[in-house]
Amino acid sequence: MTYIFNRTILREYDVRGIVGQTLSADDAYALGRSYAALATSEGATRVAVGRDGRTHSPEMEQALVRGLTEGGLDVVRVGMGPSPMLYFAVSTLDVDGGVQVTGSHNPADYNGFKMLLNGRSVFGAEIQDLGRRAAEGDWSEGRGEVTETDIVDAYVDALVKDFDGKAYRIGWDAGNGAAGPILEKLVRRLPGEHFTLYTDVDGRFPNHHPDPTVEANLADLKKLVADHDLDFGVAFDGDADRIGAVDSKGRVIWGDQLLIILAGPVLKDLPGATIIADVKASQTLFDRIADMGGKPLMWKTGHSLIKSKMKETDAPLAGEMSGHIFFKHQWYGFDDAMYAAVRLIRAVSESGKSLTELKSEMPLSVATPELRFQVDESRKFAVIDEVAGRLAAEGADVNSTDGVRVSTADGWWLLRASNTQDVLVARAEAKDQAGLDRLMATVNDQLTKSGITAVEAAH
């Protein structure tokens, strides 16, 4: 049997599409067969499978498991929970890999699959190869067995192990995502007073979209913090691998700012360690890591790429602007927003200051959010090459780790091609608004020179 996936669902870091349009249960089955063929070719025999709380996740999981077992793998089903719980299962159970059925932070009609195998993420060329296996019918055959294991309590036990934080009054927003039931168990194990929002799992996300990196989605959490005069608030995305946070004044603590706070105790324990952040992070972060005696490393955006770089450099901590925080220090190296929240409580405790004070001490800068420019898929990497060529001719100060990140007297600006969409992503940061305006004028000038008009750029 051969099977052709819609090409748009085979992404850089995962398989993801719109259910009923680009993604179906047939895709889940075919992916199971292709993944099983890859896994068995590497000697793997047993994998864990989890799912998030979306309305179509049970059907997707069922089809996936059928594909995995018919491909010869034994499957340990760990049930509904956040993606990090599946990663925890892969790290602690007697399995060779795992697949999480999840639409992550995407709207309710999306779903997809995040895959691990033999200690690595399956991403990039390997995901394209799964598509090739399906198209060629290059599948293994077998009759795997299915068992079920409840790891919720073991996961919560691990989250609070060696907890040494103080008692705070904290607000939490699970966004009706898969973290809800775990969060309710977690807060009962933590000292202090806790107020939770939307911990009932509802894959339609009736209250707000579950992506804490968009400030509008934090409105209910800010109100909760204000109404109860709380110390701070924490939010999770749909599968709890992204964290968002606000201080007692309702100010957002962005991903790179969280990493500054979290890095303190890690560098105290491991002086000189490498701390990784993606190219979208503030220069303040890289400067602060160096000031604290760490080795800051700027790397490519994308959780799979960051995890690989952590292994290569033996980094104990990494993070992205998108709220993915990866702890190898006292944890397993995967991105886990619930563990990051626990570590945030511990780090604030150790600092002897409030989260609000820590936020207030951070240098003031003005920065754009992520700006996205529509560009034809066939042009997106070519545009970056054209911009890089012009910058080289000008003798600009360019870091080309992932796209172009240009430092000037005003600050810095970034232009990179998205690995998952037909867009270019820009971001800029300066000491003041006038500097930011100059940086963005440069970005727009570069885009115009590559035939992307200001009208397109405004999207």
In short:
With 459 residues, the chain is α/β, with parallel strands linked by helices.
CATH class wording of the largest domain? Alpha Beta
Percent range of helical residues: 25-40%
SS summary, helix count: 15
Low-confidence stretches: 455-459
Q: Architecture of the largest domain, according to CATH?
A: 3-Layer(aba) Sandwich
Defining traits:
459 residues, alpha/beta, Alpha-D-Glucose-1,6-Bisphosphate, Chain A, domain 3, 6-stranded antiparallel β-sheet, 15 helices, 38% helix, disordered C terminus
Describe the protein's topology.
Blueprint: E1 15-18, H1 25-41, E2 46-51, H2 57-70, E3 74-80, H3 83-92, E4 97-101, E5 110-117, E6 120-121, H4 125-136, E7 146-148, H5 152-160, E8 168-173, H6 180-189, E9 192-197, H7 219-227, E10 232-236, E11 243-247, E12 252-253, H8 255-269, E13 274-278, H9 283-291, E14 295-299, H10 303-313, E15 317-319, E16 325-327, H11 337-351, H12 355-361, E17 366-367, E18 371-374, H13 380-394, E19 397-399, E20 404-407, E21 411-417, E22 423-430, H14 433-449, H15 454-457
Parallel strand pairs: 2-3, 2-4, 3-7, 8-9, 8-10, 13-14, 13-15
Antiparallel strand pairs: 1-5, 4-5, 5-6, 10-11, 11-12, 15-16, 17-22, 18-22, 19-20, 20-21, 21-22
